[in-house]
Amino acid sequence: MKPFKNKTILQILDYYKNLWALSYTSAIAHWDLETYMPQKGASARGEALGRLSVIRQKMFLDKDFVALLHAASGLEHLTDQERGVVRILLRSLKYYEKLPPKFIEDFERLTNTATVIWREAKEKNDFKIFEKSLSKIFDMNKQAAEYLGYTDSPYDALLDQYEEGLTVEKVGPFFAEIREPLETLLEKIKRSDLFQSTHPLESAKYDKQKMSELNDKVLKYLWKDFGQNFRLDTSAHPFTTSFSNQDTRITTWYHERDFGRSLLAVIHEFGHALYDLQSAPELEMTPVGGGSSLVTHESQSRFWENFVGRSEEFIEKFLPDINNTVHGSPFTVHDVYSYINKVRPSLLRVEADEVTYHFHIMLRFEIERGLIEGRFKISDLREIWNSKIKEYLGIVPKNDSEGVLQDIHWSGGTVGYFPTYSLGTFLGTQFEQEIVNCKLKIVNYEDIKLWLRDHVHQYGSTYTLEDLLAKNKMRFDPGVNLKYLEEKYSKIYDF
Ligand code: MG
């Protein structure tokens, strides 16, 4: 069956290719900025990207195109994919119609500069250097919320930008539901005789070249066309971007010790890449190609990270390569498994384990909400951060770069994104359960990829998260991940 056949939709898709081409170009410029661009290219790149975003807005607001979109919103008897196109474009239209072009341009400029200032502040461990920029970023986000509109909290308007329909009303109860069980679980782990505040493999050094070969080997094993439609590069922070479903890029990082960070990042980003690689080819260059729900996307990356990358079978398969890469070997499967699955309170979100990770997100959710709703002040942020991390994890940062300055998100203007990480992780476990219920084994990666393609990836962004779950006869249930964590870690820590 053809996904697109309605005349109005075909006209929309034809014009949309211009917008797609601009996004495609911006994506390459962003990818290059994070990977290979010499540092001094930053200001010209910022200018070019800022102008591209303004051109895109102007083209989107073309009178004839907007008229087509309005006409399409009343159409009946559309295919699911056609309805998806209308839904996604009307969301963008709302954004472009409500935010003045000058506001979008100013915001782009502000965040390009702020990222550079944030890097300096982080290097110098001084929040004060970044405070003024951050203050402007939150002010502009508050302003954006007013432009976009909301019913209850202004933070809702920002959450919705990253996950369609997400509100404080939904995120608040989710965190309330998981907080106590996770605290109890962490307490049990900390009381276990097997609890270690450090693991010897964390400080074991590795050879960077060999690590990069190991990462390539893992990706080749998971995706046979690795190198042909999919590549791996290095950046300051791992990420995935897709230019088309035949050209997907991921990155990882190398710290020359603590090899799990590099390896798990590769497997995590592979999960994101797979979503785009397996999106139906007919959806390419349309608004529904690839995944747009961040919760769904993160469910895929966490699925591969937690259920493949952290599994005994996977470690066993690559143990000879790990031993060949990491100094101080040979290590046993048990050594590596206990290292990859260690749980302990830590200061950095990106290093956090499956149990404590969500406390890092709760803290950010409370802070962002408090700032947007006007209950917190940026000038108090360092103190607020430090007291909250102490409340959740019982530890306090020694400096700002392992505290309030650790994440890049705010410097890029992103407020309202963090909750999708936790929600996505919880959803990833539900997909694992569905797969296991279908009598499939997680170690049979080819079967798993097909299952994920058929149930999730092929649709791209055709459905909202809620509709995608309904289509698969699922509903979001935090209890599934809580039960999995309890079972897994009671075995590892023997309680
Ligand atoms: Mg991710």
Low-confidence stretches: none
Number of E-type strands: 3
Class by SSE composition: mainly alpha
Named once each, the bound ligands are: magnesium ion
Helix content: 55-70%
Q: Would you mind describing this structure in some detail?
A:
With 495 residues, the chain is mainly alpha-helical. It has two domains: 7-153, no CATH class; 168-492, Orthogonal Bundle (Neurolysin, domain 3), CATH 1.10.1370. It is built from 20 helices and three strands. A hairpin with a 2-residue loop joins strand 2 (240-244) and strand 3 (247-252). The longest helix is centred in the N-terminal third of the chain and has 29 residues, at 7-35. The chain is globular. The mean pLDDT is 96. The protein binds magnesium ion (MG).
How would you summarize the topology of this molecule?
Blueprint: H1 7-35, H2 42-60, H3 63-73, H4 80-98, H5 101-123, H6 127-148, H7 154-162, H8 168-191, H9 200-203, H10 208-222, E1 230-234, E2 240-244, E3 247-252, H11 259-277, H12 294-309, H13 312-325, H14 333-340, H15 357-372, H16 381-393, H17 419-437, H18 445-455, H19 465-471, H20 478-492
Parallel strand pairs: 1-3
Antiparallel strand pairs: 2-3
Bound molecules: magnesium ion.
Enzyme class: hydrolase
InterPro entries: Peptidase_M32_Taq (IPR001333)
Cofactor: Zn(2+)
Structure at a glance:
The protein has 495 residues and is mostly helical. The protein is 63% helix and 3% strand.
